[in-house]
C-alpha cells in the first residue's frame, strides 16, 4: 500500500522535493521507479487476498491446498509484461510456499482435508493420488466407526436395580433377532456402507465457493455420519492467527487502565461473552 501510494503521488512528490535545494537528492530516479513498480506488481495481487483471508471469521486447514493452487496458477503466475525483478520476487514466494508444504505427512493431511471440503472434494488432488486418498479416508472412517462402537457398546452395571417386569415381545423384536444372528457378515456390510457413503458424497453437487463448509456439514451430518466425524476432526485445525489476534484485541479492550482490578474469573467470562458476538 505504501509503494502504491508513492507511485500514485509521484508527480506531486517530485514537485515538492524539487522546490527545496536540500531535498532534491531525494527525488526518485527512473531506476527507483522501476524497482517500486516491479515490487508493486508482485505484491499487489496479494493485497486483496490477504484482506479476504484476515476478514473471514474462520479459516481452517481445508483451504491450504486450494490456496496453494491459486497462488501457483493465478496470483503469482508469471506474465510476459513482468520485469525480471517481478518474476524473481514471484518465484521466491512460490518456492517458499511450495517447500513449506512439500513434506509427505503434510501432503496427506492436506489431501484428506481438501477431500472433506464440499466446495472442492477431489478438485485439487492429483489424478495419481485420488485412489490412495479415497482409500485413506475409508480407512479412517473405519477407525472412527470402531472407536464409536467400542464406546457405545459398553452397558452400565445395573445389577443393583430392581428387576423390571418382562415386557411382551413385539413383532419388531423377531426382526432384531434375525439381524443379530446375521452379525457374522457385519464387517462386509460395514465396508459396503463406507464405500456407498464415500461414493454418494462424491456425487453430491459442490456448494458455492463462497459457501460455508461448516454449515454444510452441520446440515448433512445425518446423511454422511462417518464422514462427518472426520470433518469434525480436520475442520478444527486453524491455519491463520487472525481469530486469536482478534481475541487478543478483545482482551485489550476489556482490561484497560481504568479496569485493572478485574479478577481472572470475571475477565474470562467477559472475553468469552464478547467472542460470541464478534
Question: What can you tell me about this protein's structure?
Answer:
The protein has 13 helices and no strands. It has three domains: 55 residues; 137 residues, no CATH class; 35 residues. It has 278 residues and is an all-alpha fold. The chain is 64% helix and 0% strand. One of its GO terms (molecular function) is protein dimerization activity. It holds the Pfam family Dimer_Tnp_hAT. This is E3 SUMO-protein ligase ZBED1-like.
Q: How much strand content do the residues show?
A: under 5%
What is the structural class?
A: mainly alpha
Report the helical percentage: 55-70%
N→C terminal distance: 27 Å
**H and E string:** HHHHHHHHHHHHH
**Main beta sheet:** none
**CA gyration radius, whole angstroms:** 29 Å
Q: What is the 3D shape?
A: flat
Q: Please, how many helices?
A: 13
Summarize model confidence as the mean pLDDT: 80
Number of domains: 3
Number of strands: 0
Question: Low-confidence runs (pLDDT<50, min 5 residues)?
Answer: 152-161
Summarize the model shown.
With 278 residues, the protein is an all-alpha fold.
Write the layout of secondary structure elements.
Layout: H1 2-8, H2 10-18, H3 30-55, H4 64-75, H5 84-100, H6 104-115, H7 130-152, H8 171-181, H9 186-203, H10 213-220, H11 225-234, H12 242-254, H13 264-276
Helix pairs in contact: 3-5, 6-7, 7-9, 7-11, 12-13
